[in-house]
């Protein structure tokens, strides 16, 4: 007669054994997943190529300083590495560090309106009176270096040779430097004269055939145009003969700390160039300014009503005064059209040449 099995024995014990084995297997799996180097469960990289391992750059040796490299464009070609020959243009200047300047200003301070009406008449009369009145007396003026002119009123390009301003001494010691900014002018009498007396003369003109031409021992011609902004790097890279620079960039590239004379005939670009010199504090490196100004239209990138244009011109010249520049000579060119903002008014010429001296120049 068959007897019944007691509960918990025989086939009933098999599930308990399987349960113990499953627990041991689970513990072993957890230990494997938490071993160092194993990935976290449930996290998967997105599809695509494996991500590289990025290594941080090694630290510099103890005591070493990180070097900051500044790239400056130059018209001169360097010799190939390891020697060899190549066609070199004359080398005029050695790049060098310049004194650090203050951060650039973004706009000039406009002077108050000349009158309550804010009219062209009010602004023009104030401006024309300002450029027609000298602010400081210069006893010795000249166009031919140290040869003072007997009739300076008939000559446009004049410098002040009074000993108190130092230019005459710089010329005698052959340590003066002249920058001449132009646009295709053939009249280089002033530049040649200064070079013959030993001044280092740099004439900037985009019509020059070669990048740098040494005409005589002291006279350089550069195929460069002075602008109020540097070209965008992407644009400059596409033009192998990019020839536009700010004056501050040229000074940095040439390694020049000072300019004794800055002469400019920029055919209506002078207003924006002058604004750039003011905003970037380049004026502090200049001893005398001789600028031809043009009044027959507002000038490049100068806009607004007629009265606001003249107010802008006047404000620029007042900025020069605030920088201790004083007007010592003014020349009204009667050979040019007598136009003021395209109008025959105020008995004004369309062209004046103005000469300033930096009274703080040393």
Automatic annotation (TrEMBL):
Signal peptide range: 1-30
Listed name of the protein: Methyltransferase like 24
Pfam families per record: Methyltransf_22
Methyltransferase domain location: 169-295
Chain intervals for the UniProt region annotation (Disordered): 36-99
Keywords: Signal
Residue stretches of biased makeup (Pro residues): 47-61
Biased segments, Basic residues type: 63-79
This protein's record includes keyword Signal: yes
Species this protein is from: Cricetulus griseus
InterPro entries assigned to the protein according to its UniProt record, in alphabetical order: Methyltranfer_dom, METTL24
